[in-house]
């Protein structure tokens, strides 16, 4: 076998240009497949990371009215709705897949937030409990967070995100300044932002619209205790749940949903309430996007595989030429006692080495092409080790398959006719 491999490399080196042109179809096909797989894998990883976070994975459990997310507004709270208290939170935390829970209320304020001449339009007001910022992966950039005194005394203090602070205060330091919300005065206690490992990766404008557009108007955080001061009544809570790891997100969401819905009231006629809690299964959403991406990549891979078939035909053609050129050599080996299987193994090895070499070059070209596409199109890449191994093995198989007919032809040559061949 080693002697056959040595002879194969000797033959390839003796006809460098012809061998390279023969391998070109294999190189292009493998390079295209590696580039496609690497780009798709990178995109899928970015989808998963952006949707479910990186290290600070959370599951949101929200109240729905029928098929629609219940939106806090100026209407009264749904009748007999349970408020999420410490007992309910402890019941949810008893599940082994859940490590932290936080409750919050959420509403939209369209044009009633002001500081001097600046106005916030379409900002989100969020009433948070004591665990919210930690569970959500926020970090304090200025000032302070809420404390127990703020809650017990119903202090009119707020915390802003960077977008809200920038719109209202510009370059001015907002800490200690007063803003007006629906005619009441609130003091800015702090500024928060997402921790770096929770930030989605934005490669283009579409990513910005997907992951940041909803936050563009900014958010204002108040304590859940002071919430009725703005809206005039208690609103139902939503929940954020932190699972032990990414793979536990679905189960954590389901458990939290089951516990919350077990406290939902039954209507007077005995039917279930129209209001139900539902978890946002980001793993499933990421999988749907990844499946769509994978289906596209499969089509592209099939298209790229056509060049492998063309390359295989090229290998078969050049091997037939090689058999013709070496007819007298084959006849001499047979006359000296070489068996059919020896001749067959020699030519099959030569075909396999030729296509394997093309596969290795194609892998290198594919990795380079993947990074080139990443730089030009601003898409992430993730080089797949398994795809590299499969590609090289597949190129070797192509050599064996398409080199079989020429090898059989060489093995079946009549030694007398071969020796007399001119």
What's the gist of this structure?
The protein is an alpha+beta fold.
Provide a descriptive summary of the structure in words.
The structure is a single chain. The chain has 422 residues and is α+β, with helices and mostly antiparallel strands. It folds into two domains: 181 residues, no CATH class; 207 residues, no CATH class. It is built from 15 helices and 13 strands. Strands 1, 2, 3, 4, 5, 6, 7, 8, 9, 10, 11, 12 and 13 form a 13-stranded mixed beta sheet that branches. A hairpin with a 2-residue loop joins strand 1 and strand 2. Helix 2 packs across helix 12, helix 10 runs parallel beside helix 13 and helix 10 packs parallel to helix 14. The longest helix has 44 residues. It is elongated. About 2% of the residues have low confidence.
Question: Any key phrases for this structure?
Answer:
422 residues, alpha+beta, 2 domains, 13-stranded mixed β-sheet, 15 helices, 13 strands
Uncertain regions spanning at least 5 consecutive residues: 204-213
Number of separate structural domains: 2
Q: Structural class, from helix and strand content?
A: alpha+beta
Tell me, what's the shape? elongated
What Rg, in angstroms, do the CA atoms define? 34 Å
Report the total helices.
15
How many beta-strand runs? 13
Helix share bin: 40-55%
Distance between the termini: 30 Å
- Sheet having the most strands: 13 strands, mixed
Q: Estimate the strand proportion.
A: 15-25%
The SSE order reads HHEEHEEEEHEHEHEEHEHEHEHHHHHH
* Mean pLDDT metric: 78
């Amino acid at each position: 076998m080693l002697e056959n491999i040595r002879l194969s490399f000797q033959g390839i080196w003796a006809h460098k240009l012809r061998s390279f042109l023969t391998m070109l179809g294999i190189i292009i096909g493998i390079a295209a497949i590696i580039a496609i797989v690497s780009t798709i894998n990178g995109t899928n990883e970015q989808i998963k990371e952006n949707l479910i976070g990186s290290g600070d994975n959370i599951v949101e459990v929200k109240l729905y009215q029928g098929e629609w997310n219940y939106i806090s507004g100026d209407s009264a709270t749904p009748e007999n709705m349970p408020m999420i208290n410490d007992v309910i939170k402890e019941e949810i935390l008893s599940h082994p897949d859940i490590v932290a829970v936080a409750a919050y209320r959420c509403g939209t304020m369209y044009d009633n937030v002001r500081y001097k001449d600046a106005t916030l339009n379409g900002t989100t007001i969020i009433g948070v409990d004591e665990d919210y910022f930690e569970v959500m992966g926020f970090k304090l950039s200025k000032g302070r967070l809420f404390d127990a005194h703020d809650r017990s005394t119903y202090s009119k203090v707020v915390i802003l995100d960077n977008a809200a602070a920038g719109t209202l205060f510009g370059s001015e330091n907002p800490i200690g300044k007063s803003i007006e919300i629906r005619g009441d005065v609130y003091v800015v206690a702090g500024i928060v932002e997402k921790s770096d490992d929770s930030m989605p990766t934005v490669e283009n404008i579409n990513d910005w619209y997907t992951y940041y557009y909803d936050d563009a108007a900014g958010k204002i955080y108040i304590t859940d205790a002071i919430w009725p001061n703005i809206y005039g009544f208690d609103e139902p809570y939503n929940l954020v749940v932190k699972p032990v790891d990414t793979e536990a997100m679905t189960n954590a969401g389901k458990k939290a949903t089951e516990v919350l819905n077990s406290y939902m009231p039954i209507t007077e006629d005995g039917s279930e309430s129209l209001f139900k809690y539902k978890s946002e299964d980001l793993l499933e959403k990421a999988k749907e996007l990844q499946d769509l991406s994978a289906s596209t990549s499969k089509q592209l891979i099939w298209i790229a595989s056509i060049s492998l078939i063309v390359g295989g035909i090229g290998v078969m053609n050049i091997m037939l030429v090689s058999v013709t050129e070496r007819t007298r050599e084959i006849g001499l080996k047979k006359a000296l006692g070489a068996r059919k299987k020896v001749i067959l193994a020699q030519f099959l090895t030569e075909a396999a080495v030729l296509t394997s070499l093309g596969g290795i070059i194609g892998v290198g070209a594919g990795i380079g092409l993947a990074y080139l596409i990443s730089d030009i199109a601003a898409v992430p890449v993730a080089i797949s080790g398994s795809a590299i191994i499969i590609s090289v093995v597949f190129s070797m198989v192509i050599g064996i398959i398409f080199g079989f007919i020429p090898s059989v032809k060489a093995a079946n040559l009549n030694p007398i006719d071969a020796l007399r061949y001119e």
